[in-house]
Amino acid sequence: MHSSIHDLMRAASRLTQGGDLQQATENIQRALRQAGLSNPGFSPPGMPVAPPTTQGTVLDGYVFEVGAAKPTSAKTDAASADFVSGTHSHAGRSLAYKLYVPPGYEGQSLPLVVMLHGCTQNPDDFAAGTGINELAREQGFYVLYPAQAQDANPSRCWNWFKHNHQGRGNGEPGVISNLTQAIVRSHGIDPSRVYVAGLSAGGAMAAILAEAYPEIFAAAGVHSGLPPGAARDMPGAFSVMKTGVSPAGAARANGASGAAVPTIVFHGDRDDTVHPLNGQQVVTKALGDDAAPASQRQEQGRAPNGRRFTRTVHTAADGRVLAEHWLIHGAGHAWSGGRPQGSYTDGTGPDATREMMRFFAGHRRPDARA
């Protein structure tokens, strides 16, 4: 790609962060035209139009999710002394992180939830929007927030769509999994109760981690994300975000892999950034060899704040819950039941944070070792 396109995208990133969404959109559109991707037959997924909305676009490693109001203060209700910062290095990569340590549980072997933020977010923003630190204080579990560096992706997106960040021991999955194991050891965490969850690009990376490291993660939560292997490069990312997984991509995503990890999926059926068919594909992938589970139960419901949803539960012959799929009707690209203190949240939906923790509580790895 020509260097001028990279310059335009970097400028768009700076403009987005500075709040000038109109000029950022024009830069993205110019970059697309130079890349030959802007024509009447090609419509990039989630390309913002004036006035901008909560949508995104992908271009050669740049993922923009623009239009969401950023909080002026991304503080949590938890005491700051319990929310500590650190840096972890592994295989030539360094990763900043924050760790929430629930007070009052000294000496106990608690669970750990690894939370992967979405594009343009950071640990403080994600913690504020999901409210999971408050739930961790209430129920007693650690929360680890790896932080994507801006020099790894200008919009701080996890690089789920790059082939070198999709496998065991490679790239971002390698360093995140190594960080997770280090936190488990250093804080005496119960290794049988380690979970991973994420939103959007973070949800896609959570699915990759669950597939690549089934011996670490007992269950996964994927919110508005995509299945592992859905895309291997920039053109594939455009396609899968816009229309869902292609037949070729579905065959690749459903290919041979390690042991399936129980997974709970949330996705809005009005998501214009990541097509909701991706949520269904995450469930199919999570079922693995149990693609035809012993039973499937579907129920309709309504959240206290208004959103209707369809919940589908897939159960094995022995009664184990293999997967849950929550399709949130009328919802877009946002954390269901989230708080307005964080970006990309929808407070009218069912509480994804509590439902994920309920799901996680029902799963642990019987063969885990400290």
TrEMBL record:
Statement: the UniProt record of this protein carries the keyword Signal: yes
Superkingdom, taxonomy of origin: Bacteria
Chain ranges passing through the membrane: none
A Pfam family per the record: Esterase_PHB
Signal peptide boundaries: none
One MF annotation (Gene Ontology) recorded for this entry: hydrolase activity
Entry keywords, A to Z: Hydrolase, Signal
A single Gene Ontology CC term: extracellular region
Annotated region described as Disordered, given as residue ranges: 289-308
Protein name per the record: PHB depolymerase esterase
Species name: Rhodoferax koreensis
